[in-house]
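Quick one: LmbE-like protein from Pseudomonas fluorescens, structure tokens please.
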Amino acid sequence: MKPSSLGDSSLPAQIWNSAAQIDRIPVINTRSLMPDGARAVVIAPHPGDEVVTCGGLLQLLSGLGHPLLLLSITDGSASHPGSRQWSEKRLSVFRPQESVEALRRLGLPMHSLKWVRGGFTDAALSEEQTQVTEFISRYLRPGDVVFSTWRGDGIDDHEAVGRASAEAAERVGATFHDVPVWAWHWPEREQVLIPWDRARKLRLDTWTVARKSHATHAYASQLNGDPAIGIAPMLPRVLLERMRLPYEIVFV
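--- reply ---
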């Protein structure tokens, strides 16, 4: 399911709010995911994906003192094709600024967070997967724990970056975990495609959820589409609603 379709109020029940299996996902704590002293690497296909994917986990890891590396594969400048209001030139400047503000809202230590921008082309990562894998491999090291979008998430860029991240992690001896994003917004009937046996739930307290929600709202360009040319918000209301849940789910 494409993000633009989520603004339709007539959508059928989605996996995130209807699948009984979600309540039965085993709970895991952060220390079970991250060995003491390990570096966490979050790989975001587009700016903002790091918050949508694991904004809560980033806060938990920062609180435990883990070194953090964020890789932004694209600059997200092609999110509004054909828009005059949100032209590629404007977005190439605006979206990195949004990310800086979002990370500040998460409360991450910007002086110690390493952030690398890849500059790859939006909506073309499947064709550039080999190059993306090479780029990611340059920044990983043995013992890292890597988080990126699920290789079956239903969005081409998310899946390509998930595959590239998993391959790069395997090359260097790092651990890789998928994190589903758009898959939770598939119709309930598609829940058989979710690898429930790999799913683990990280509980988030009220303040962690609140900071995550606040950080998401730093992405003004993604909260507003361009109705004049039929572009819906990239972060529709239903996704923002799901992000207020008191947990995040990763595949181990």
